[in-house]
Design a protein that fits this description.
heterodimer, A: 264 residues, alpha/beta, six-stranded mixed β-sheet, two-stranded antiparallel ribbon, 6 helices, 27% helix, elongated, B: 209 residues, DUF305 domain-containing protein (chain B)
Chain lengths: 264, 209
């Protein structure tokens, strides 16, 4: 900040000049001293201030006070403006990334989330959502070596899991490559599926991608975009749940027995 | 600055100008201070982001173990400890997930587990498992255990899991200055170290019971 003083020959004290031009709206002097001061000198003897210093009339007290109060006030406004308009905070745009995957299917019709003990028919194979069992299939990086009931797997998708499925004739080395993407990683599960029209199919809630080979880079794209992000229940978990394989969901007695067993 | 006067007054023009200038400087200070107070958020490959992702996975397995202990633990001490660890660590998973949202980062990463840690790849066991993590065989054994075996297996596995967790916390403490990360990481370390000594005492107590 630079505050230069008015020319000394004027002998006008307390003229604070910033830059060369008067501020808009500055009023001409009214009254004032005998000599005509530059425009903008407030006239009148309203605020006679006793000069503090003998040799000069610049009164730094009020200036400092105005400056300090002004800086603090505007600083607070600046703080608020930054807080209100700062960028970021919107989270990660996983949907754009998912929909950019070549060949991905996104089911946009309503997928029901209600619970049942009965076997369900699904529009997709494997399913990507809809009515499902009360119990989810455990999806703590579980690699199931036999088919699992759709009704439990769909509940895992609802929680945000990515379900990797493969046709039984997929070569063992490709099965191992897929399993390596799953093991030890929560919100992932894998199982073989009967009657699959492609060697490999990936599912997240409302999303599906079918590929021919485990080395297809779109597999990692699918997992990266949708694991956890596609959840219908933010904060839901994969621990607990059903760990049995089979083609029929647990019935009510079996679910009761499962929870009974867990209670010890 | 050498002006000498005898009629101390304020110049309206000068005052307006200085107010305008003060406004500009004040705005600059306000923006500047808040930018400094809220510096650039951690990058995708930062230790803070890697820690948030990997510790979430690490915690998820601890929650799975602790839920088994809470439901099937033979000793009441084990059931209470299991409940405490499960609820605490699940809440911490939520906190870490929100950091990533705040930083506009994906919860998923192409990086291998522990890539954010110096020599992190060497700390992986049994393939991709982070320090202290149980294998799927160990988890199945705990799920299928009954009676006192639940307590014994749980305490062994959770002590190992906590030791690995503290190791990961130590790594992030030296690599980030994010106040939220430091706060939670320090809290994890203190709590898990306390629980390790509690669990070791409990092992002695239960062996005599």
């Amino acid at each position: 900040m630079s505050i230069s003083t008015q020319g000394g020959e004027q002998h006008r004290p307390n003229v604070v000049k910033v830059g060369g031009k008067p501020a808009a709206g500055a009023k001409p002097a009214t009254g004032g001293g005998a000599k005509t001061p530059p425009k903008g000198v407030k006239g009148g003897p309203k605020k006679p201030i006793t000069p503090v210093k003998v040799n000069q009339g610049r009164n730094w007290g009020p200036i400092a006070m105005f400056a300090a109060v002004g800086l603090i006030a505007v600083g607070i406004i600046g703080w608020g403006a930054w807080a209100a308009f700062r960028p970021g905070g919107a989270g990660y745009d996983w949907e754009t990334r998912a929909n950019a995957i070549d060949g991905i299917t996104h089911v946009t019709t309503e997928l029901k989330s209600n619970h049942t003990y009965n076997p369900e028919k699904y529009d997709q194979n494997p399913p990507v959502g809809g009515t499902h069992s009360y119990v989810w299939q455990q999806c703590m990086g579980d690699v199931y070596e036999a088919p699992i009931p759709n009704e439990h797997a769909v509940h895992s998708l609802e929680h945000g899991a990515v379900w990797i499925t493969y046709r039984k004739d997929l070569p063992a080395d490709q099965v191992a490559a897929l399993a390596a993407k799953v093991e030890g990683k929560e919100m992932m599960l894998m199982s073989p599926v009967e009657n699959l029209d492609k060697p490999i199919s990936l599912q997240a809630w409302s999303y599906q991608l079918k590929v021919d080979n485990a080395s297809d880079s779109r597999i990692d794209d699918f997992i990266g975009a949708l694991r956890v992000n596609a959840t219908q229940e933010p904060g839901a978990t994969c621990q607990g749940g059903n760990t049995a394989t089979g083609d029929k969901p647990l019935n009510e007695q079996q679910v009761a027995a499962l929870t009974q067993q867990q209670q010890g | 600055m050498t002006d000498v006067g005898n009629s101390p007054r304020f110049s309206t023009r000068g005052l307006a100008l200085s107010v305008a200038l003060a406004v500009l400087v004040g705005l600059a200070i306000g923006f500047g201070v808040t930018r400094l107070a809220a510096p650039a958020t951690p990058a995708d490959d930062s230790a803070a982001a890697g820690f948030a992702r990997d510790m979430s996975s690490h915690h998820a397995q601890a929650v799975a173990m602790a839920m088994i202990a809470a439901k099937k633990g033979n000793a009441h001490e084990v059931r209470v400890l299991g409940e405490d660890i499960a609820l605490t660590q699940q809440a911490q998973i939520g906190i870490m997930g929100q950091w990533l949202r705040d930083w506009s980062l994906n919860i998923n990463s192409d990086a291998k587990p522990m890539a954010w840690m110096p020599d992190g790849d060497k700390s992986l066991t049994n393939g991709n498992l982070m320090p202290g993590m149980a294998t799927s065989q160990e988890m199945t054994a705990l799920e299928n255990a009954t009676g006192k075996d639940v307590d014994r297996l749980f305490l062994e596995m959770m002590i190992k899991h906590h030791l690995g967790g503290v190791h990961m916390v130590d790594a992030v403490l030296t690599q980030t200055d994010d106040p939220d990360v430091l706060w939670l990481a320090k809290g994890m370390k203190a709590r898990q170290q306390l629980e390790i000594s509690e669990m070791q005492k409990l092992q002695t107590t239960l062996a005599k019971r």
